[in-house]
Amino acid sequence: xxxxxxxxxxxxxxxxxxxxxxxxxxxxxxxxxxxxxxxxxxxxxxxxxxxxxxxxxxxxxxxxxxxxxxxxxxxxxxxxxxxxxxxxx
Length: 89
Fold this sequence. Notes:
alpha+beta; 11% strand; globular
């Protein structure tokens, strides 16, 4: 984010945990809740992108179906998926 900002780009990090504190507050942590969390986040990312912001969406996304739904909503040419493997500790 910092590097893009320093290059003069309008950029925002959309963090999944932060969304659970406000927009997605109260959603359960079950499969249906995670799916709804993803759907809402994809809509927000799309709106930010349409407004001209590069949006870095930081989410745990183990479900391929959810990633594909986000890709369909945001647009194939507007979404790049980055896989990061890290231990929780």
